[in-house]
Write a structure and sequence with these properties.
The protein has three domains: 82 residues; 241 residues, 3-Layer(aba) Sandwich (Rossmann fold); 81 residues, no CATH class. By secondary structure, it is α/β, with parallel strands linked by helices. Helix 1 runs parallel beside helix 4 and helix 3 runs antiparallel to helix 4. It has 13 helices and 15 strands. A seven-stranded mixed β-sheet has the order 5-4-3-6-7-9-8, sandwiched between helices. The N terminus and C terminus are likely disordered. GO terms for molecular function: S-adenosylmethionine-dependent methyltransferase activity. This is Rapid response to glucose protein 1. It comes from Achaetomium macrosporum.
Length: 439
């Protein structure tokens, strides 16, 4: 029985082949059955998406049966082989569209953006057929999810790079693993800056095409894009000349970059080579939490970033909900819901840079403590997970930017008391402070 809300009746019945419908009738019907792939939107609820999908894909079984009948039919009543080939081709495409994104041929999608601060625009993205390991030819949901958050970053944790007169505005933003280019093109539009889009050499032709067809939109909004090949861990002859000058970019962005075991190391190396050594430099990463394998690759990436010659710490992180169209788009398996983890990484500051600006006598590390032993940095100071350097504390604690000591909870205080003997009269230790131990 048809659901009156989710499955509205079709506007017209499908033609019956036993009636030998004309070529124009069959072609018009098949064109009306075209299904566009999803454009996921973080602002649209899952219920709305399901309702829309159901409305578009009503009578799926009947339609698939109709398409299958056409493919198997000789279409002998049509006047020419050319007409038969067109009808068979269109019917095959409609069936592929109902088998998910991976079964589709070449498609072009328009991705809308709207915000009261930067206005309304859309980007046109071509996606060739997915073949072999060419995963960069698909627009992944993480690219759109992160692109929709870019304005929040430029007015929040990345404001020091984009607000005029604060510190500096990056001459260029580097995107690693750009794929079809949606994220980098959106960054150029929203941030009104220059973005270099990069990927493997075999991905570059389509990436360059998308940059070209969107150039007017990007430049009309004050941005600029360039495209260049960049193979992570590639040999010298595989490196574009612009990337031979290391530590050039104040900001690197990357979305959904981890698929193989070797990717965390390769990506961490590429970031280490290209990111500026400035304490203001940042890396913005988004990784979908599809399964345990992806989560494991993310843990490895975080470890690899800390092992680089210029270690990178996670400064801020969050998880947002979103969708993607990997798998059977209209099947019963609910594979479209994905959680996207994003993080901002920054260079581990040197001891000198840990001084509070304007108050050089106050440090966020105790005497004899080395910042490279740190486990993380937040807005209030530097975290250590256990005993380090000459610090007498032996459990989790934070050296605050104001020179004080902070514990996350009472258990951490008790752990420290169990693990060490406080020497309150020793001025060389943080415990000698007169303030209460809980900062």
């Amino acid at each position: 029985m048809r659901d009156a809300v989710l499955l509205p009746p079709p506007e017209e019945e499908l033609p019956h082949l036993w009636q030998k419908p004309a070529y124009d009738v069959l072609l018009a019907c098949l064109q009306k059955l075209r299904l566009e792939p999803r454009i996921w939107n973080l602002q649209v609820s899952r219920a709305d998406i399901l309702k829309e999908q159901a409305a578009v894909a009503h009578d799926r079984r009947e339609i698939v049966s109709f398409l299958s009948t056409i493919v198997k039919s000789s279409l002998a009543w049509l006047s020419s082989d050319d007409e038969r080939d067109v009808i068979w081709d269109e019917a095959s495409k409609r069936m592929a569209e109902r088998c998910g994104r991976t079964a589709m041929g070449e498609i072009t999608r328009r991705w809308p953006f709207e915000n009261q601060d930067y206005g309304i625009f859309s980007l046109t993205i071509r996606e060739p057929p997915l073949t072999g390991d060419s995963l960069g030819l698909k627009t992944w949901g993480s690219s759109y999810a992160l692109a929709q958050l870019l304005h929040e970053f430029s007015t929040g944790p990345l404001a020091h790079l984009f607000l005029p007169g604060v510190i500096s505005m990056p001459d260029e933003v580097l995107e690693l693993g750009s794929g079809t280019g949606l994220l980098g093109l959106a960054a150029a539009c929203i941030w009104k800056t220059s973005v270099v889009l990069t990927d493997l050499p075999n991905i570059i032709p389509n990436l360059a095409h998308n940059a070209s067809i969107n150039r007017e939109v990007v430049e009309g909004r004050g941005g600029r894009v360039e495209v260049a090949p960049l193979t992570w861990g590639g040999a010298a002859h595989e490196i574009d000349p612009r990337f031979r000058a290391m530590h050039r970019y104040q900001l690197i962005i990357v979305a959904d970059p981890l698929y193989d075991d070797e990717h965390p190391t390769l990506l961490a190396t590429a970031i280490d080579e290209q990111l500026a050594l400035s304490s203001d430099a940042r890396v913005l990463v988004m990784v979908p939490q599809r399964d345990d394998i992806t989560k494991g690759l993310l843990r490895t990436l975080r470890e690899e970033l800390m092992r680089r010659p210029s270690p990178l710490l996670c400064l801020e992180e969050r998880i947002v909900d979103g969708q993607d169209d990997w798998g059977e788009e209209h099947g019963d398996d609910d594979t479209q819901d994905v959680s996207f983890w994003w993080s901002l990484f920054g260079v581990v500051p040197s001891e000198a840079s840990l001084k509070v600006r304007g108050r050089p006598e106050v440090r966020a590390v105790a005497p004899g403590c080395h910042p490279k032993e740190a486990a993380g940095v937040d807005a209030h100071g530097v975290w250590y997970m256990d005993k380090h350097d000459l610090c007498p504390l032996r459990a989790r604690h934070r050296h605050g930017w104001d020179g004080g000591i902070f514990f996350a909870n009472l258990d951490d205080v008790l752990d420290n008391r169990r693990e060490m003997k406080l020497v309150k009269d020793d001025p060389a230790t943080p415990a000698a402070r007169e303030e209460p131990f809980l900062g």
